[in-house]
Design brief:
The structure is a single chain. By secondary structure, this protein is of the alpha+beta class. It folds into 2 domains: 9-99 and 200-209, Ribosomal Protein S4 Delta 41, Chain A, domain 1, CATH 1.10.1050.10; 103-187, RNA-binding S4 domain (Structural Genomics Hypothetical 15.5 Kd Protein In mrcA-pckA Intergenic Region, Chain A, Roll). It has helices at residues 9-15, 32-35, 55-70, 74-86, 91-100, 103-110, 116-124, 158-167, 202-209; strands at 128-130, 133-134, 147-150, 176-179, 184-187. A 5-stranded antiparallel sheet has the order 2-1-3-5-4, covered by helices on one side. Strand 1 (128-130) and strand 2 form a beta hairpin.
Length: 211
């Protein structure tokens, strides 16, 4: 399966803002945006994030930013958009709601991982149960009422022991509830636009695919 394997900090620098792909590092002075606030590449220092772009360029950058935040490749992202078009309601909001319902994103939102890439790895390694059954597909979409649990045997790992100590103090979106003691969470509702805190202008993505 194709996936991005280069340094993820380059993605933040390319978009000119923090995409929070490295967990706690993004909040420290080691963050690439803090150390090198210019686009990557040989001539990066000569470039600027504020250079004038065409409408197409602005739309493209917004689409790329959304893909990179959620860790989705182009073909799958377009499938999500086409599905959002067929769903009643606003296409842009439907798209973001679908991205939020990905299992790797939900694991991240519940606080079981410090970043979405880390959550993807947690799911891939079989540490996550959905409704009592192991599910190791990061792109699987959860539904209202689903219960996400860290596998009991996995809770003995040092990583999850450390995670459990801070789980109760982490902010969780209103459409999710978390039980820190049992390391589980429940989907209490489907996410609405007001529940999604990413800095994405979904209308620009709609315009990009509708051109």
């Amino acid at each position: 399966m194709a996936r991005y394997t280069d340094a993820v900090c380059k993605l933040c620098r390319r978009e000119g803002e923090k995409l929070f792909l490295k967990g706690e590092r993004c909040f420290s002075p080691k963050c690439a945006i803090e150390r090198r606030p210019y686009i990557p590449g040989q001539h990066g220092k000569k470039g600027t994030f504020r250079r004038k772009m065409s409408d197409f360029g602005i739309q493209l950058r917004e689409k790329q930013k959304a893909r990179r935040i959620y860790g989705v490749l182009e073909r799958q992202f377009r499938k999500y958009f086409e599905e959002a078009q067929r769903t009643p309601g606003l296409t842009g909001e439907n798209l973001l709601a679908t991205l939020e319902r990905r299992l790797d994103n939900v694991v991240y939102r519940l606080g079981f991982a410090d970043s979405r890439p880390q959550a993807r790895q947690v799911v891939n390694h079989g540490h996550v149960y959905v409704n009592g059954r192991k599910l190791d597909i990061p792109s699987a979409l959860v539904s209202e009422g689903d219960v996400i649990t860290i596998r009991p045997h996995s809770r003995e790992n040092e990583y999850f022991k450390i995670m459990a100590e801070t789980l109760g103090s982490k902010a969780v979106p209103s459409w999710l509830t978390v039980n820190a003691g049992e390391m589980s969470g429940r989907i209490t509702a489907l996410p609405g636009r007001g529940d999604i805190d990413t800095t994405i202008n979904e209308q620009l993505i709609v315009e990009y695919y509708s051109r």
